Amino acid sequence: MSDFLPTGIQLTYLVAASLFILGLKKLGSPATARNGNIVAAVGMLLAIVATMLDQHVLNYEMILLGLAIGSGIGAIVAYKVQMTEMPQMVGLLNGLGGAASALVAVAEFWRLLDSSQAIPLDVNISMLLDVLIGGVTFTGSFLAFAKLQGLISGSPITFPFQQPFNLLLLGAYLVGSAYLIITPDSLPIFLGVVGVSLVLGVMFVIPIGGGDMPVVISLLNSLSGVAAAAAGFVVMNNMLIIAGALVGASGLILTEIMCKAMNRSLFSVLFSAFGTGSSSGGAAASGGATDQSVRSIDPEEGAMMLGYARSVVIVPGYGMAVAQAQHSVRELSDQLEKMGVDVKYAIHPVAGRMPGHMNVLLAEANVPYTQLYDMDDINPQFDQADVALVIGANDVVNPAARSDTNSPIYGMPILEVDRAKQTIVIKRGMSTGFAGVDNELFYKDKTTMLFGSAKDMVAKLVSEVKQL
Q1: pTM of the model
Q2: 299-307 and 326-338 helices, crossing angle to 10°
Q3: Which of 130, 212, 395, 438 is an active site residue?
Q4: Is-catalytic flag, 395?
């Protein structure tokens, strides 16, 4: 039995790691994402049980108590959080993950210090890296949450000699780490290194604009995985190393997808103070170009354009998410299909605040996955579309990204709705998007504006379409 238990634990770890990978694979498609979550959760349960057996944990009362409290809080938060606030929730979870990893390093250092055991060099380096990455993830994620939630200004926060101060903090961390490698039993220096790491997290996030916070949260998600992997090296747990590495890699891939979708480099996101949501010129500042006019319509006219079309492409955006209009959009789609209209949905990777945001919202309204088209697949089809219906999207449909070399979003891949025969844009007003630039689409001859709340306007469109 004593020989079987270690072998069984390692086999369980292997199965858990396989389930993690399979779960991540399934998360790549809206159709299988829910099953992917379940598969990965089963893998984590197996990993936890195996670790408890491996470490000979006999007192399960506190573990079960923590499990009950954490599960209760998680269930309540997940139930109550709005889809538009999902990046904030991810930011909080990233921060807690980073804090947990850093605390593992702190606890292990304290344990080794109390036991008067010599701290191996590899464990010492792993602890120092864990403290740095976990501390930066913790404070950086909570600050990103505060910016997105509006608790502090979303604008970049800068001050004189900011970069020299950051270099000074980094130098202090390196000096403290070098001292601990030579003299690993200094508790005050170790706590000082922890403090510096926490401050570095704050300094990392404050100069970044609120419009770029989703990218930062995705990067911090990757860092939380790296911190977990470092914690795995600290406690010599292979499963934690594998799980952390998978989270780190997937978070970095997601970050790259978001940067590519905005035609921005990660360096630009982190250091250019772009995407504050503020205007970049007089026209933007006034909420629209003063020397151009737009053509507005009412729901009755919009319903006639949609009802007598052969092909309609619906483009959901952040405005649809804020208004919680996805169910009304599904109802409109169903009504148009009854009239023989071919309806498709065009999904831009950053149409919401994170990749997959629109997919999840539409899945919530039971929109068939076969009607959802990625940007690369739908763009060639806009030429054949009679009407493109844009609901609350802005920067991701701005033709300036394709034609205006002076625009800050020039080169960003967009949904080319301006190629459709007619375009209807549902929007509350003429305000700019996160990029802070005016949208050329609104002033084109083939574009009509339907002003109002996305949910109200779509509901009125449904009512008018039924009367055709």
Answers
A1: 0.78
A2: 50
A3: 395
A4: yes
